[in-house]
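re: that chain from earlier
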Amino acid sequence: MYKQLMAARQVSRRMLSTSANRQVVNRVPQKQKMFQEDNGVPVHLKGGAVDAILYRATMGLTILGTGFVIYELLNAALPKKKD
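^ sequence. v structure.
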């Protein structure tokens, strides 16, 4: 049992130490250039279509949530009369 545990430990160590062989591409200068250029687009939309979709989804959920809160506050403030 002990030998199996030591073997598993050695295999896991070997797998962890050799897994970082590939090079990571540094894209920071490209992103900095894209976000710093003056083209009239707000910074929160300079990422492209994905940023526009996320922005619109966030605004839609915010408006929906605000409407729901107002509806619930009105329900709490003006309860229905029981006749």
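The chain has a mean pLDDT of 86.
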